[in-house]
Amino acid sequence: SFYVDIKVQKPVTATATNTTAPLFAVTSVTFTNTGGCNSFTATANITVNGPGTVKFHWVRSDGATPPVPPDLVFAAAGTQSANISWATTAAGTHWFDIYVDSPNNQQFGRASFTCP
User: Fold this and answer.
1) How far apart are CA 20 and CA 44, in angstroms?
2) Which of 3, 30, 34, 41 is the most buried (most CB within 10 A)?
3) What is the pLDDT of residues 31-56, one digit of tens each?
């Protein structure tokens, strides 16, 4: 005679977890413009998807090189603003572009104004 003991257990299931976080990036830039000739101010509202540091610079339509602004340090996803001003009486359309050097290495838009 012999003896058999069969035990049925729940099957082990693997659970998949995503261990990779999305790369830090600027996800959008919107502009608010105020003033005009002699007193134009462009404000860039820079939005990111998580914590990190954004390095950027402004480009001006007349080729002048504005000072490099301070880095924006984000503790979490969100929006911060940076602004720049220009006083000119030169006729025509003038603009500022914002260029994100890091993390995106990408131009993100233009703020324009026109002088008569």
Assistant:
1) 30
2) 41
3) 999 988 889 999 999 999 999 999 99
